[in-house]
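Reposting from the mailing list since nobody answered there.

I have sequence plus structure tokens for a pair of proteins and want to know whether others read the tokens the same way I do. The first protein:
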Amino acid sequence: MLEWFVNPSTQLLVLFIVTVCCLIRFQSHSDKVFGILLLVLVSCSLVTTEQVISSFSNEGLLTLMLLMVCSLALERTKLLRMITNYVIGPHYYSTLLRLFSLTALSSAILNNTAVVSTMLAPIRNNPHHKSSKLLIPLSYAAILGGTLTLVGTSTNLIVNSLVLDTGLPTLRFFDFTAVGLCLVLGCGVLLFALSPLLPEYDKTQVQIRDYIIDTEVASDSDLIGKSVEQNGLRHLESLFLVEILRNGRLISPVTPQEVIWPGDRLLFSGDVKKVTTLTQFSGLSLFASDIGLPLNNLSEVVIRPESHLIGKTLKHAGFRALFDAAVVAIKRDGEALCGKLGDVELQAGDYLVLAVGEDYASRNNITKNFFLLSEVETEHCLDGWKEKLAIGGFLTAIVFAAVGVVSLFKVMLILLGLLLLSGCLSANEVLQRIPKNIWLIISSALLLSQALSNSGALDGLETIVHSYDYLFTPFIGLVVVYLLAWLMTELVTNNAAATLVFPIGIELASTLAANPQAYILAVAFGASASFISPYGYQTNLMVFNAGQYKLQDFVKVGVPMCLLYGVIVLTAIPAFIGL
């Protein structure tokens, strides 16, 4: 019994199962789970030093890093905003068609999060349609568009890095396109048919506010002793005084005759870009300006579901020390916040506007805790020849890689060099943009895959398959692999699902003498099938909050989308790729 347990293959199977269980239990800390996995593999000598080095320098993995860094320059151009201008119109189904088509096409070559974040504001503020009728289609279109090409989603690039690690030929740019196009067309038609199920949440039905801006009246302020009306606080451009917090008592609504007292906390709602207007009032201060952070360099972020800030207040989180930033304003879609900002308990999906210090850009924990948006960021946008270089260079690089003139890794490395030399990107921005948690997750998963292969831990699959050879055919194996990837992506994350199911798929393909590429694509497409849970993919989370959705809104539309998605994948892969 002891010999059985100390057998390396048994140890690795146990380690694999424990990793899956930990990912399900600690979904928001997948990078830490994989980090511990890496330490266990190395300390137990289940992998060699050479394998550790090769996993972190995998060509497919480095290509993903380069692509995400180079896309930052493209996001700073007007390209996505120009696309968004053509989306909204008075006719709902025409708008939905343009939204779905342009989002899917953009997501085929751009970062999904950037596409969705750029389109959020115009959709939410459009005068023609309820935003809740458009935001779920926006997220689903981004997911479906990402399946069209190798660079459409990080999942596809992660799978390609695993392919390269096993010594198989690299996936080509358009290997996903035939199946992906069937998904875009089929699921797109279904989405139109399901559009009546999308809710129509009216902002007037619940008390929805824009950003809440917290200010304090100093003891020597000229505002003291005068009414709100006399102080001119009722006629501010795009800002509205919604509450006064006085000695622990909340005054709301605020009447024009309300007199200002020393120490009053005045809470404004409205356009955060107008926040500097408040500094023109004598003795009315914001926390950020009091501690020396400039208000002309604001950054808008969304709290990630795995952020350690969740459940904490700003007062107790040590926000300034952690990020070299202060919260100027906060917003939670679908819920009216009240009271001073320091006492608000933070939740996933909360929007924050930050006044940032000089050290903010170099902090490694920014991308771990926030999705970075650009609606009110004052960082310089690219214009003139730099904008043309960013757009033209990126699109040219994609075309060269797509037609096979040069490898995607090589052309992205050249493009990054040009962007740095031209000043379109800085070294600090590049370091900040590198997704270090994804790098750790994929590298650790590559090591686990190598360890499983070297030890023969998955050889038991061959015994199981041969024991039930009357059931297992190449098609049944394909179904099993796809369902495993889909189930894992709903339980954990799409990237973790791809890395964990991939070695099973390759081993099963080998045992059944099936086409390995079919099984590889089944892993990739299955890991991208995130439609049911608003927390399964970052774009779902973004629209979940912005559209004031409930969980059942995603379930009603997501379940039929997921079923059709699976049918198309399992039909199209044998038809286009073969088994």
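The second protein, same order (residues first, tokens after):
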Amino acid sequence: MSIQLVDHRGNPLKADKEILSEDIARAYTTGVRNPRPASVASTLAPHRLASLLRSVIDGTNPEDYMTLAEEMEERDLHYAAQLRTRKLAVAAIEPTVEAYSDQPQDIEMADRVRQLMSDDKIPELFFDLLDGLGKGLSVVQILWHTKRTPWMPFDYKWVDPRYLRQDQETLEQILLISEDAPSGAPLEPYKFMVHTPRSKSGSVWRNGLARLVAVMYMLKSFTVRDWWAFAEVFGIPVRVGKYGANASEDDINTLINAIGRIASDAGAVIPESMKMEFIESAKGNNGDSLFENMARWCDEQTSKAVLGQTMTADDGSSQAQAVVHNEVRLDIAKWDARQLESCVNEYLVKPFIILNWGVQEHYPKVKITIPEPEDLKMLVDSIAPLIDRGMKVPAYALRDKFGIPDAEEDDELLMPVSQASMQGFQTDLETSLNRARIAINRVSKSAETEIADLTDEAMNEWEQVATEFMNPILELAQKSDSYQSFLDALPSLQEQLGEEQFVEQMAQYMFQMRGFGDAKDA
């Protein structure tokens, strides 16, 4: 398959298709891309952090900053949870594909991209691209299957940002270091996806959340360390051993060893002549609360930086506050989704189509739509009175809101209690009529007409009389809020039922039918 590679302007590019299928960003312990860098967070101090942040801007040592950003996600539980929440709010959404127009060619292109988006590796791809939220940029390598048509990605490899550098001339182009280019070389076209999410305007190297949260991370690490030291001093009672004036040096050493063992073993053996007392230490003037408040304050600032709010991320929020602040987080999720869409369309959709079918005038678009929370109960309570007043609402609109599929012809359907009761009554009535018809068919032809007339006459009068004792029951069913309340109210309804006329007519017709049968038997 002969493919002419072009850039985003349509200019020819020189590239080998074998490069598209190879893993050219792999790390080796013996190369410049070392997968085991030295720790940065363990030696973090104010002067070290300031130097580290400056090194990213001037491009002298961005590796340490990227290492710190990685370690922050591993060591700070709160930052890791908040950042993961923000990533998954977008990465968990199933993408859709929209054709540019209704033209057959545009629809065909959209179908091909849908096949691309159906790959099981797409969620992991989105998650790896969203790693740029913390570090300012994320690069993912595409491994193309070039031995069959169409060319399809068979894997996506996350590129460690420690291997990336910025072009010192433009300060914008991203370079990848290697043995052949220790200072970095431009990324191969159609080989890499570059996601640079914006949390503020400016250089991508100053745009990551890790840069914003790094100071809070350092302060919290100091606070937690001092908190544990404080707890060790003030959380354990002072142990005092007393020995007599005649105690020997061996006795004193025995007492000292016993006091030391109590701290670790919670038990010790001492001579009967010696004493040991435990003196409760002071609480340190509420120092424990001081450290806790400092650590919590750092967590709250981290929540504001990552999610844009603290009400749904930290304790002590009311429901009303959480609802309001959740909308802010929804705005952030939508912004993250739009930027991810742009990256996928530019670095995956376009290369996929260009490599296989050439440059197109228009391309389909991948969409990542964030669902907005909706109070369905409020919707039902609001729309029900409008429907009662004559507003026409299509049933499919509400079914889509609740995610209810269209009912099939053979499906068993749910219905209101009043309608179910009437349907049960009609079913019993039809059963009785069927039995009557069977009995009629068994009599002679000479009696068939007479019995049919008598049955029709009875059914006509049945419809006139039944309403007097059925309507109160149906009204009670409609007013009842549960089946139990309906059963409890039935005894008191008995006095209101007008069953006298119905019973009288039934007795009359039974008498007529008995007489008719006796006459036929005679």
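Reply #1 (J.P.):
I read it the same way you do. Confidence is low (pLDDT under 50) at residues 316-325.
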